[in-house]
Amino acid sequence: MEYQRLGKSGLKTSKIILGCMTFGNPAWEGSPWVLPEDEALPLLKKAYDSGINTWDTANSYSNGTSEILIAKALAKYNIPRSRVVIMTKLYYPVFDPDSPSRPNPAINDGELVNQMGLSRKHIFDAVEESLARLNTTYIDVLQLHRLDDTEPEEIMCALHDLVRMGKVHYLGASSMYCWQLARLQYTAKMNNWTTFTSMQGLWNLLYREEEREVNPFCRAEGIGLIPWSPLARGLLARPWNAQTYRSSQDKKTVKWFSGEQNEVIVSRVEQLARMKGCSMSAVAIAWLLKKGACPIVGLNSMERIESAGEALRVELSDEEVRLLEAEYRPLPVEAI
Fold first, then answer.
1. What is the pLDDT of residues 239-251, one digit of tens each?
2. In terms of C-beta density within 10 A (0-12 exposed, 13-18 middle, 19 or more buried), how is residue 237 classed?
């Protein structure tokens, strides 16, 4: 595994970040592909042994169970806390672990009043609860999962105070428009508060809208790019029309990746993979690595963890990058 600084910070993360949404409760949000504890813990150990030292989760993943499994893995395998970079997110409510769903993100009322969103109260409550589930005294990178209409000053002051208290070391954003990210970043700068170190957006060969404004802004600000869904929920990891158990159950694949050009792009990934003697996923991830990003990858088997570093050995020429990018057409902004 190789490592690089997260943006302009001193924190180094593995170039492949382990996506921990895969680990938790298969009943969560109708996600039968999520792996339970007995399958998840050995995979977390394997990732650590493979040098993947950076794990991304969220308080809402499997209603907190994902965070709990990370804590259990560290304890069971005697993994020193200092050797792992834990990234988690807040915004959504956390339900009873057996609850199958969550409400519309706009609902902060009734039984859920102050149980979600970015008020100072909920930010502090959510962090305390994540610390308890993770069984740790600090979070390496705390990220805003989504954004609501809370005033930027309240959000950034609360986050800064958590950094000052030592409960959070770095701040990250996720899935928002560039103007929203800029507003938060400059609010922090004007008040000498802690600014964002990372940005987690939806970015892959089939969805590249982040390249228009968010990515250039982040590069100018020294904010590290850690894209989620780098394989477009598996579409870039297999030949077109091939199905997996997850894809057959996944409504978001159709919603987010419906571009007419997708079949051509996937076929070009397949073509380059054959030429280079590597997997299709290695080509898709290598494309992001060449852009300087550290993609968040869901790895749900020992074999996939063992091959995760394959992308680091794939060299894409400028001509090959142009081949992969040429057929892309603008899409509606999604996942915000």
1. 988 866 566 566 6
2. buried
Question: What is d(CA 57, CA 100) in angstroms, rounded to the nearest whole number?
Answer: 18
266 belongs to a structural domain: no
Measure the CA–CA gap between 178 and 215, rounded to whole angstroms. Answer: 9
- Classify residue 136: in a domain, yes or no: yes
Indicate which CATH number applies to the domain containing 74: 3.20.20.100
Show which residues are catalytic.
61
**Residue 200: enclosing H or E segment and its boundaries?**
strand 196-200
176-229 pLDDT, tens digit each? 999 999 999 999 999 999 999 999 999 999 999 999 999 999 999 999 999 999
For residues 247 and 238, what is the distance between their CA atoms, to the nearest angstrom?
Answer: 11
Q: Is the dihedral of CA 239, 242, 244, 247 positive or negative?
A: positive
Q: Which of 247, 222, 243, 58 is nearest to 146 (CA)?
A: 58
